[in-house]
Design brief:
This is DUF397 domain-containing protein. By secondary structure, this protein is of the alpha+beta class. The chain has one domain. The chain has one helix and four strands. A hairpin with a 2-residue loop joins strand 3 and strand 4. The longest helix is centred in the C-terminal third of the chain and has 17 residues. It is flat, with a radius of gyration of 14 Å. The chain starts with 13 loop residues before the first strand and ends with a helix. The mean pLDDT is about 85.
C-alpha cells in the first residue's frame, strides 16, 4: 500500500522570472530521476523529462530567444 504521495509532492517548484502573479506560469522542479514541468493553474498535470531532455529543451528555448 502506498503512502498517498505522488511523485511531485514535496518538490521545490520554481517559476520563470517572466511569470507575473498567478497566471498560467510554467513551473519546474528537480526530482530524483527527472525534471518535472507543470502549468501553475493545473498543478496535478505534469511532464517528467529526463535530465538530457531538459537540457535539450532549455538550449532550444535559449536559441529561439537569441534569434528573435
Amino acid at each position: 500500500m502506498g503512502d498517498g504521495l505522488g511523485p511531485c509532492d514535496g518538490l521545490d517548484w520554481q517559476r520563470s522570472r517572466f511569470c507575473v502573479g498567478e497566471f498560467h506560469c510554467v513551473e519546474w522542479a528537480y526530482g530524483d530521476s527527472c525534471v518535472y514541468l507543470r502549468n501553475s493553474q493545473k498543478p496535478d498535470l505534469y511532464l517528467c523529462l529526463t535530465p538530457a531532455a531538459w537540457r535539450c529543451l532549455i538550449l532550444r528555448i535559449r536559441s529561439a530567444w537569441a534569434v528573435s
